[in-house]
Write a structure and sequence with these properties.
Layout: E1 2-4, E2 8-11, E3 14-18, E4 29-34, E5 38-41, H1 48-58, E6 66-70, H2 76-79, H3 81-88, E7 93-96, H4 98-105, H5 108-118, E8 134-136, E9 142-146, E10 149-155, E11 164-168, E12 173-175, E13 182-183, E14 190-191, H6 201-212, E15 218-221, E16 225-228, H7 234-252, H8 256-267, H9 276-295
Parallel strand pairs: 5-6, 6-7, 7-8, 12-15
Antiparallel strand pairs: 1-16, 2-3, 3-4, 4-5, 9-10, 10-11, 11-12, 13-14, 15-16
Length: 298
């Protein structure tokens, strides 16, 4: 397996970008798919849109040739860049799960919830009023982009109920979003994204197992980077191993504070690229979501 932590081409007609999530390097990945119809996979934070536009121009791409902005789920660090990009990419439409699309129609609830958790650190998303620029997609849908690129929608709930992953068939590339966790640098481990209130253990596990069935040769994480090679799919196996370890730690810990401390002690180095302000309470959130998600129904 080769870990890719620098932006650039990672496959045939596929470019990975560092889109500066929360204004920091190596926190958010986005993809440019360079078919006849250009596409962005994961618009990122609101501030990420400026990075995507700049990088697209640096590659000599015309913004009017972008047709799709694919969104994995409704969290602000994944979709808030979309409304901004629509203003630059006049022919583009946002494609996502019906809940993510509903969030773009009326983001007041997600903006308020994010402010409650993250305070002033949040970049709220704008709303999209033009219904013609929104597309609902779901499991099994496929988009032909031209030049041999075809993107399949894979329903991967668990992190959230509306989570989609995207499989590009030509490159055997799986963009996991948050459905398989956070790539922990070059350590070849993964931090499960067990945030409350949406995380559900059984769904999350089944989603990673589902992605494994594709035997991808390139696996891309929204936070941050890619793993490629004939055995790249093994990073998904590692995701399951860590998830099971977290389950064991949760079952051994008497309360959320103890669990948060144990998770941070064992896996804290994996969040090194994230801003200090985020890391300080990240494991408290992960611990809370993990305990609740273990007993949540399907």
């Amino acid at each position: 397996m080769e870990v890719v932590l620098r932006p650039g081409r990672i496959g045939e007609s596929v470019v990975m970008l560092d889109v500066m999530g929360w204004g920091h390097v190596r926190t958010n990945s986005s993809l440019l798919l360079l078919g006849r119809r250009l596409a962005v996979v994961e618009p990122g934070c609101k501030g990420s849109a400026e990075v995507i536009v700049r990088e697209a121009k640096s590659l000599g791409l015309r913004l009017d040739d972008f047709h799709y902005l694919f969104v994995t789920h409704r969290h602000l660090d994944h979709l808030a860049g979309a409304p901004v990009l629509l203003r630059f990419m006049q022919n583009a439409r946002v494609a996502g799960h019906r809940y993510a699309i509903a969030t773009l129609r009326d983001p007041s609830k997600i903006n308020a919830a994010a402010r409650q958790v993250f305070g002033g650190y949040v970049e709220p998303t704008d709303r999209v009023d033009d219904e013609g620029r929104l597309i609902v997609v779901d499991e099994g849908d496929s988009m032909e982009l031209g030049q041999g690129l075809e993107l399949e929608v894979v329903l991967t709930p668990g992190h959230t109920s509306d989570h989609l992953s995207f499989y590009e068939k030509r490159n055997r590339l799986m963009f996991t979003g948050d459905s398989a966790g956070i790539l922990a640098g070059e350590t070849l481990t993964v931090i499960p994204t067990t945030f409350p209130p949406s995380f559900k253990y059984n769904r999350y596990l089944k989603s990673v197992e589902r992605m494994l069935e594709y035997k991808p040769k390139i696996v891309v994480f929204a936070h941050f980077g890619a793993v490629r090679g004939d055995d790249a799919y093994r990073i998904l196996e590692r995701s399951i191993e860590v998830l099971e370890d977290w389950k064991g730690l949760a079952e051994e810990s008497e309360d959320e504070n103890v669990l948060a401390r144990r998770l941070k002690e064992k896996y804290g180095a994996g969040l090194s690229p994230f801003p200090l302000e985020v890391k300080e309470y990240m494991f408290s959130l992960l611990a809370a979501g993990l305990r609740r998600g273990l007993t949540a129904g399907e």
